[in-house]
# Entry
Amino acid sequence: MQTKKILCGLLMAFVLIQNLAAQIATDKPTYFCGQPAVREKLYHQHPQLQRPIDEVTDASSRGGGNNDVYIIPVVFHVIHEGGPENISDEQIQSAMDVLNRDFRKQNADTSAIVDEFIDIAADTHIEFRLATKDPDGECHPGINRIVSDLTNDGFNDEMKQLVYWPRNRYLNVWVCKSIGGNTLGFTNLPGDVSANWLAYLDGIVVKSDCLGLIETANVAYARTLTHEVGHWLNLYHTWGPTNSPNDPGNCDFDDFVTDTPNTIGYVSCNLNGSSCNSTLDNVQNYMEYSFCSRMFTQGQRTRMRNALTSSTAGRSNLHTNSNLIATGVINPPLCLAKFTSTQNSICVGDTVQFFDDSYHAISSWNWSFGDGTTLTGTDPLLHKDPVHAYDTPGIYSVSLTVSNGDEELSTSITSYITVYASAQMDANFEEGFESTWPGTTWSTLNETNNDTWEVTPTASYSGDKSLKLRNFSNTQLGSSDVIYSTTFDMSNVDTIYLSYKWAYASKLTETDDKLRISVSGDCGQTWSLRKIRKGLTNLPTVDPQNSQFTPTTEAQWNGETLTLLNEQWFTENFRVKFEFQGLGGNNFYLDDINITSSPASVQLDELNPFIRFNLFPNPAQGNALLQLINTSADAYSIDVYNAQGALCYSTQTSAGAGDKSVEIPHQASGLYTLRIRQGKAVRIAKLIFE
# Structure
């Protein structure tokens, strides 16, 4: 190997600080890894921290020369807004698997390492395990989930302050939606944040789609965490401390590892590259940007293990036996029996998959599905996440007992699964929440066990009651509360109309609660989102307020009708779902859910004997005339919707008996739906404008 050129560290640090202003001024995007950029940011904010770029830990082989396996407890902090950035436990475990394979040289692609470097490819004898205890010694899955819009700005130090565990006990990994520019992840070198008052910065930030090999992961970026852990353990890029690969000037820089040749750095896989003094470059190194990385060198192994045996930034305490016991990495305790499922309301004959979310080290399972069927065994493929079919309508409790071989825990949820028969309700339905709730018409889901849907007599749009969700004091941000309907027979209709009233106030601080309305034609096996309302835009019905909201007048409510025209919903297993996601706003109220339809085989004037009318001309080239026959004294509301379900025209008749005529203004050419309502009676007709 060639002799390395080591420049003055202080001079280099000065150059990095000078370059920060230029980078900000030109808005130069960062490349893939943000480690150099975060160092520049740190020095820019705190010039007194400026330090040489050479060694943070000494170069002795006190940690690098032995084969003791250093185990590092890890905690993931998933910062999310309820979107795909809220990656699953399984994807996080996939990321841990990739990380451990890479650091233990168990990755299958080591077979493709070029001959010149195969003999120095290193098993670092460093492993990573999810913590099973939190800093207070309480049982924990090793994964925190926090709802915050700071997920969109992962480079902001404020995001790290949402949640942080002691760095001398855990490796903190923050997962976010976006970091900025082309950055996939970043961390600080241990020496840069060695001061105790900087401890909250110590850890790794990585984009959610750069973790693991499953679900939302971009497989090309799956080794982002491997790369960043290298920095966290004091490795530089193979071309040195800059973030500018493919720069000839990098030949003058050094990464302080003797067996990685000086290089200009790569952003592609050039296995024949020899960029500095004709020495073959280690393009397949994890600290490159080549996207064909598959190795650490023996010298990098030594440098990382030296970092782990140094007191700098608390690294030497992480792998001590006492800390591994305290964080639950050794002999993890059995501390929770818990399960979830794909759904908790189905139709007869449908299946539910259950998921064991218990922890830790579960070795046997005993399920009882409430219908007389049990399942017991030790094979994870068969017994951990079973699928069960229910053959009889009813409401069923489910229980699970888990064991780790030494002890066992049990949990049971009463009335967990609701099984409906097909076509339990007729095609026309009204719900004002005046009778027993939820009865046989509705089922609910509240996995976080916080305040959930309840009937209240203190507010309503019509009648005396409505459905209320106590969201004002909700501290479990991102929690979801759902109501599901039973099945409706829509097998002989050509249009479905779903209407509802709601009332909601946001808080004075920006809050973005969400209401999602979905429908299903296959009894909830699949759901189609038909409307989403957000607390920052179209959900509030009154001005923001920081006190408990209760609607007191009809004007504080809003309403809409969704027109459903897709044939996939015209079945005997049509269902409706209302889902409210609490993200820090105020109370929410729901009332007057009406589900009506236009039968495909019935004349329109036969639908409801209480409302009689004529509509002509139809098709209309100009205005249309609606003639109401023998009306009652109560007023009628007339609404016209386009094919997308948007309200195009609305009016009301004046009170008084007798025939009445209402002129419907001409609309753009197309098919429209006319909805006539008097009290709780509803009539539907189709109207064509030419």
Summary: The chain is about 10% helix and 30% strand.
